[in-house]
Amino acid sequence: MRVPGLERILFASGNRGKYVEVVELFAPLRIDIVYGPDVVVLDVDETGSSYASNARLKAKAYFDASGMPSLADDSGMEVRALGWEPGIFSARVAPTDGERIARILGRMRGVEDRFARYVAAFALYFPSGCCFVTEGACSGTLRETPAGVRGFGYDPIFSPSGYDCTFGELPDEVKRKISHRAVAGYRLMDILSGNCVVE
Q: How much is the average pLDDT of 141-159?
């Protein structure tokens, strides 16, 4: 399916792993998705109080710098036993994925309640100033030790509900169907492939 008037968008992120997921996720729309740093290099301050507001901040910043319709996402891990932390600060817990995982596992040592969820928001900003925002979540549990090398972020310690393995072990084609980013993406595709007209 094609979206009238929308043939090319900029992915507002320097995270190559997210870019690959987004290109595969939105493939049915047959839109050319350009990797942000190939056009403009930005470091956007994520000062929003929610995933949606941070995604919108990034999408608008990339649009302002490039003039292209821009798609941004913001996502994080929420752990019930930690008062739903780290949430929107997930990427800022430590400098690397390995350090972030170690820090969360350290805080969860000896904790029985392992419920956690991944949450994501997409924001697609258009030249008209219109911005579509969608959100998605994927619930599951935290493992006590990492498993798998796929994905990024907290994937090696997160097991989605209904699965015995982590996102770090799940095949990409399965993760693309059930992840928080997939849910938010499907909702955005529903909007884009509907009867709305974007100027």
A: 94
